[in-house]
Amino acid sequence: MNRRHFLAASSAVGVAFAQTAQSVNTAVIGTGGRGTYLLRGVIEQPGAKVAALCDIKPDRLDKAATIATRDNPATYTDWRRIIDRKDVDAVFIGTPPYLHSEMAIAALQAGKHVYCEKPVGVNAAQVRALVAAAKASKTVFVAGQQLRSLRQVGEAVRRIREGAIGDVIMVKAQREASADLPHDGTSGDWYFDVSKSGGYLIEQSVHNLDLCNWAIGARPLRACGFGGTLLYKNDPPGRTIFDCGSLTYDYPKGVKMSFTQSVFHPSSMPNGNQYVYVFGTKGAVDLMANTMAYPADAGTKPYPLAAKQEEPTYAHLAAFYDAIAKGGSLPADITIGATAALTAILGHEAMTRERVVTWGELGVDL
Ligand SMILES: NC(=O)c1ccc[n+]([C@@H]2O[C@H](COP(=O)([O-])OP(=O)(O)OC[C@H]3O[C@@H](n4cnc5c(N)ncnc54)[C@H](O)[C@@H]3O)[C@@H](O)[C@H]2O)c1
């Protein structure tokens, strides 16, 4: 986390809340699948009040308003009317990815706290503009990289950093699904358009890539790899996102990361789904599944690197409100959110340009 930015945010927050009422007037922009989930979480937070909701689809807006009946929120189809409302303190952004950066920048510049769903942008220019706005702002910004709020994984990463498996030298990770996202699902009208979602790597694997960065404790220097659409060709019609890809990332100190993704791994076949295997000089860790450590010394039995913990459903949201009220630490600030998005964008650029792409080429100063 960027400590300098956080301290600036927390001191300003203290001022803001000394002057205003106790409750945090909250708005949700984009009340589809994820926005509705977030809305339910907002309602559970002590001190949060749902002041406004926005969606361009009236049926989704109505459904969200019903969920938030307790607070009788105003409803809008034009998100800028929420930005204009001076009494809205915090904004959740749950719209399709290509809209995140513009909406988050407008909210930050209007002095609002922002919880922005991942990815924080679908290209480097969007991320660059958002990073500049977040760094200039005195409010709280949280990216929806909620795996950062998993306590067990956080503890395992801490143990890795302490040297539990020696020096991290390689990570092998994947995000394999057994099918495409439903073509007629709630996000079917934007997900298959690469300019709107960014594609599978940027829209979905951004979570997995963030875990890889977390485990390695660095961001990649460069990436290369290939992707394509091999099964779902022009399906749905006009599709511009890949359905598979295979990437290699190179990190400082020569650390390597290998990442694959596809949407045609039969669920009955072993080794599907998602994993992040972290390899060190003294052993390896299955970070995503159970944090089991496997010592290199064959005579030492595997052991859990971190104890299983109860993971509160809305821990990531709670951390956002804690930071607003008390200046608590942020699980995924702008640096983490931007780094995750840029790691995915780097891989996407490598696959589409079919060459090695360097971090420096992205032109974002973190
Ligand atoms: N953190 C997570 O684990 C997680 C999980 C699912 C989705 N997401 C993210 O949440 C975002 C939304 O995904 P989803 O699955 O909910 O999609 P969705 O299509 O179900 O919801 C998006 C909503 O935004 C609305 N919208 C579109 N343009 C708008 C505009 N200009 N103004 C206001 N509303 C607008 C749509 O009408 C829709 O209701 C994506 O960025 C996705 O990556 C994150």
CATH superfamily of the largest domain: Dihydrodipicolinate Reductase, domain 2
CATH class of the largest domain: Alpha Beta
- The total count of strands amounts to 15
Low-confidence segments, ≥5 residues, pLDDT <50? Answer: 1-21
The N- to C-terminal Cα distance equals 11 Å
Oligomer: single chain
CATH arch. level architecture of the largest domain:
2-Layer Sandwich
Q: Overall 3D geometry?
A: globular
CATH topology of the largest domain: Dihydrodipicolinate Reductase, domain 2
The number of helical segments is 13
Any idea what the radius of gyration is? 21 Å
What does this structure look like?
With 366 residues, this protein is an alpha/beta fold. The protein folds into two domains: 165 residues, NAD(P)-binding Rossmann-like Domain (Rossmann fold), CATH 3.40.50.720; 179 residues, Dihydrodipicolinate Reductase, domain 2 (2-Layer Sandwich), CATH 3.30.360.10. 36% of the residues lie in helices and 21% in strands. The protein has 13 helices and 15 strands. Helix 10 crosses helix 12. The longest helix has 20 residues. The radius of gyration is 21 Å and the shape is globular. Nicotinamide-adenine-dinucleotide (NAD) binds next to helix 2.
Task: Give a short synopsis of this structure.
36% of the residues lie in helices and 21% in strands. The chain contains 13 helices and 15 strands.
How does the SSE layout of this entry go?
Elements lengths: L2 H17 L4 E6 L3 H12 L3 E7 L3 H10 L6 E3 L3 H5 L5 E4 L6 H10 L3 E4 L7 H13 L4 E3 L7 H11 L6 E9 L17 H4 L2 H4 L2 H11 L5 E7 L15 E7 L5 E7 L11 E7 L2 E4 L5 E4 L7 E2 L10 H12 L7 H20 L3 E2 H4 L4
Parallel strand pairs: 1-2, 1-4, 2-3, 4-5, 5-6, 7-10
Antiparallel strand pairs: 7-11, 8-9, 8-15, 9-10, 11-12, 12-13, 13-14
The structure holds nicotinamide-adenine-dinucleotide.
Nicotinamide-adenine-dinucleotide binds next to helix 2.
